[in-house]
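To illustrate this point, we now present one chain and its tokenised fold:
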Amino acid sequence: MLKIGVLGAGHLGKIHLKLAHQSEKLDLIGFYDPNPENAKKLSAELGYRAFGTIEELIENSDIVDIVTPTLSHYECAKLAIEAGKHIFLEKPIANSVAEAEEIISLAKKHNVKGQVGHVERFNPAFIAVKDLIENPMFIETHRLAEFNPRGTDVPVVLDLMIHDIDAILSVVKSKVKEVHSSGVAVISDSPDIANARLVFENGCVANITSSRISLKNMRKSRFFQRDAYISVDYLEKSCEVVKMKDAPEVPGEWDMILQNAEGVKKQIYFDNPDVKTNNAILDELESFAEAIENDTETLVTLEDGTNALRIAYQIIEAFSK
């Protein structure tokens, strides 16, 4: 089993600690947190070993799980990579695209693997339909959250929207050629509500909306492609697939048939796949361990995380245009 150490024991760090401890594919060695009181309390309550320094934790790990504030991602990753350790980085990968690109360069130089925590890739609803999403031409996403002071120190694009940016980039096999956006700062210094329109070279258009001051939570994406409509509810972990095919000559009593102005008839039918229950964070951590053990590419690469961050910053820059 690969030894994993967690850097950062905040809200998400505690979740990573719990799941790594439960994992049958990972050996949790402990954590480091710069707040000695928090580290001592957590160690006493849950029994995890609290390391005295970052360097000590890195030295004893095979995988360094970086769940620290984004501002420190680069420095933590650099220390781990230069020590020859594999890194799992929570999203966003880094505080800037330049830092992210340097992380990629360092990982290649020291021959270590890296994965970015874009957890929606492991959401069972997205997994159930991903292979059915073929050449989508219009995508619409809504990621709305009730207000929570935690996370308002960064733009909503980096906090919430980046999840959908990554998911969209993973299914649209084309480069982004245009970025349009608007954002409104309601309670923070940076936008709390944002909308972005991505235009891809192949003609696909993605309309992305995120808010962190909504009255209810919502995480939905809809993918429209020729002869199919696919809906993913990340929050409810459900999906819907509506397809069209040529109508039979003699439709059944319950068949849903549409006829256009030219007289062409199409049959509408549902093709909803099974959604298997899972723990997405545990799965992403264990998939990383499997990639290391089998020497295969990680499911969310450092390049993936960098591409999502690059588009996120293009969206932020477009606010002022």
Notes: The first strand starts at residue 2 and ends at 7. The chain is about 35% helix and 30% strand.
